[in-house]
Automatic annotation (TrEMBL):
Keywords: Calcium, Hydrolase, Metal-binding. It holds the Pfam family Sulfatase. Gene3D superfamilies: Alkaline Phosphatase, subunit A. InterPro entries: Alkaline_phosphatase_core_sf, Sulfatase, Sulfatase_CS, Sulfatase_N. The lineage of its organism: Bacteria, Pseudomonadati, Bacteroidota, Cytophagia, Cytophagales. The keyword GTP-binding does not apply. It comes from Aquirufa avitistagni. The keyword Protein transport does not apply. This is Arylsulfatase. Belongs to the sulfatase family. It comes from the Bacteria.
């Protein structure tokens, strides 16, 4: 009997030591970290000899490394494909600015799926898939959002951001600040499953770097050059690597806190970038950078760590896609995918938990941007110009092998043409969706001028709409407009963010929609200079910033309907002095 009791005790002890053997394993936490414009070659574990990324390298050592993982050539499409598991063109993403970044409302997001499964959800960083509810992250499954919804931001030090729709001011360097919020979220939800999305906005331009990171890189010698070395901007490369080192430090802080909370074992952590590098710098000899459908423009690092289930150090060579993340994570967490639309991604669970050497020779991943289409198979890439490259030997895409591999060539051409006829046709030629105002999903609607139109003399502060403001207001005939839709009538408090000198004190500003109008006078100057250049390592292509302040225009009742919302002045006192950044409408009832 004593031996029997000892035997039972041994079995129970074994079940306690190895929960997956004797009891149902708890739902894993999920952390998805996405860098912005960071190339495959910007990390130490991929062979970069200059950058120091010990935390990400450790993640790669302890996790699974995907050797051939593909994203879209630019930001918003990749984010949409992550959120939905579907090609971005299916979800209405046709650009990276104005309203063309909005993810169609009939798409189901990964956050909604995990939220419905009982997870607490949060997103901290760059959203880039719609700025107004119901496109806003708080309407797409995220309980908490802190960051910005635009395609890029113009200032990384104490920037103006938003928290669940409310405008607020960031604290410190933006990547540090976003990571602080991620850590606080983990602290608050350590006892229940959480889904944390951390879409960082570096090393995207402007190239602003904390001093301690830049001092290390500003005088360093680069031993590795870009594939087209003559196009490399050395200062830009150094800034990107310095920003990458800052990201790595923050990844280290996040992982350390995960350890302290004793959550590491049962947390799935993913790390990848949204597209290729934003400059011609070393990238493993691959052709192409951000914005191209060549290998270097769409190949991204992907690390997945889950100590409880995944073998550290594993390398997966099969081609995989950002669209695979949704079905894979749902499968690993044993959560049903409730999307009403078929997924283009596939679960990688068999690769992760079974045979890592398994390769799907019949898989094809299509990359699309700006009318350029390329197709990746396990060994080949059919380029946008229909040249065929054998990527087993030629990452630089130098030799057209179409005549040497006629069967593969014809197959990839068929795949490309089928995708054009069956998938690309789902994307409308024009995006005529109005911006939604007054949606109950958020108490406040933000209408940045980057999503509006200048009329008369008014123009953007920069040709790139994201984070621009309207300037060159010369006469009372000039105005700014947005095409909007209001589903439910209501009373709204309207504010306008402006700058001007004291000479425009007394100027009236009005907002109208339908037959409703609200008007107020400027009663205080806000004569501030452009800034941002003092923190830029190299001159930016995008707009510089101003410290815009709100002017309360008053409250107004708006009727439901669609139409043009206008901001105008019937008494402009000084020309070329008034600049506008944003209009907000807060529902009062």
């Amino acid at each position: 009997m004593n031996n029997f009791i000892r035997f039972i005790f041994l079995i129970l002890s074994t079940c306690t030591m190895y929960p997956s053997f004797g009891q149902k394993f708890e739902k894993p936490n999920i952390i998805i970290i996405v860098s912005d414009d960071q190339g495959w070659g910007d990390l130490g574990y991929n062979g970069n000899l200059t950058v120091a990324t010990p935390s990400i390298d450790k993640l790669a050592k302890n996790g699974v490394r995907f050797q051939h993982f593909y994203v879209s050539p630019v930001c918003s499409p990749t984010r949409a494909e992550l959120l939905t598991g579907r090609y971005h063109v299916r979800g209405g993403i046709s650009g990276t600015a104005t309203g063309r970044v909005r993810l169609d409302l009939d798409e189901t997001t990964i956050a909604q799926i995990f939220k419905n499964a009982g997870y607490s959800t949060a997103a901290y960083g760059k959203w880039h898939n719609g700025g107004q509810a119901p496109y806003h992250p708080n309407s797409r499954g995220f309980d908490d959002f802190y960051g910005f919804c635009s395609g890029h931001w113009g200032n990384y030090f104490n920037p103006i951001l938003e928290h669940n729709g409310e405008i607020t001011k960031g604290k410190g360097y933006v990547t540090d600040d976003l990571t602080n919020h991620a850590i606080e979220f983990m602290d608050q939800h350590a006892k229940s499953p959480f889904f944390l999305y951390l879409p960082l906005n570096t090393p995207h331009s402007p190239m602003q770097v904390p001093t301690e990171n830049w001092n290390k890189y500003k005088n360093i010698e680069l031993s590795q050059k870009g594939t087209i070395a003559s196009k490399e901007n050395i200062l830009h490369t150094k800034a990107a690597l310095a920003m990458t080192e800052n990201i790595d430090w923050n990844v280290g802080r996040l992982m350390t806190r995960l350890d302290e909370l004793k959550l590491t074992q049962n947390t799935i952590v993913l790390y990848f970038s949204d597209n290729g590098p934003n400059g011609h710098r070393w990238n493993g000899g691959m052709k192409g950078i951000k914005g191209t459908t060549d290998e270097g423009g769409v190949r991204s690092p992907l690390i997945m760590q889950w100590p409880a289930k995944l073998t550290g150090g594993t390398q997966i060579k099969s081609i995989t896609s950002v669209m695979d993340i949704l079905p894979t994570l749902a499968d690993l967490a044993d959560i049903s995918v409730t999307s009403k639309k078929p997924l283009d991604g596939k679960s990688l669970k068999p690769l992760l938990l079974g045979n890592q050497a398994l390769v799907d020779s019949n898989r094809f991943i299509i990359s699309y941007w700006n009318k350029q289409i390329s197709v990746r198979s396990q060994n080949f890439r059919l380029a946008a110009d229909d040249a065929l490259y054998n990527l087993v030997d030629d990452y630089a895409q130098t030799i057209n092998m179409a005549s040497s591999f006629p069967v593969d060539y014809q197959k990839l051409l068929e795949v490309k043409n089928k995708w054009k006829s069956e998938v690309l046709t789902e994307l409308p030629n024009e995006d005529d969706r109005p911006l939604v105002i007054g949606h109950p999903g958020l108490p406040i609607t933000q209408l940045p001028v980057s999503e509006g139109f200048g009329h008369g003399n008014i123009k953007r502060s920069n040709q790139h709409p994201n984070d621009s403001h309207m300037t060159n207001w010369l006469s009372k005939d000039d105005y700014i407009s947005w095409e909007v839709a209001l589903e439910q009538a209501g009373d709204f408090e309207v504010s306008l963010y402006y700058t001007c000198s004291k000479e425009n004190i007394g100027t009236t500003l009005s907002m109208s929609f339908g037959d409703s109008i609200v008007t107020s006078k400027i009663n205080k100057e806000n004569n501030v200079p452009l800034f941002g250049m003092e923190n830029d390592i190299i001159a930016r292509e995008e707009s510089y910033m101003k410290d815009f302040k709100p002017l309360n225009l008053g409250s107004v009742r708006l009727k439901a309907g669609s139409g043009t919302l206008k901001v105008f002045s019937n008494s402009l006192l000084k020309a070329n002095d008034l600049d506008v950044k944003l209009v907000t409408l807060r529902r009062l009832n």
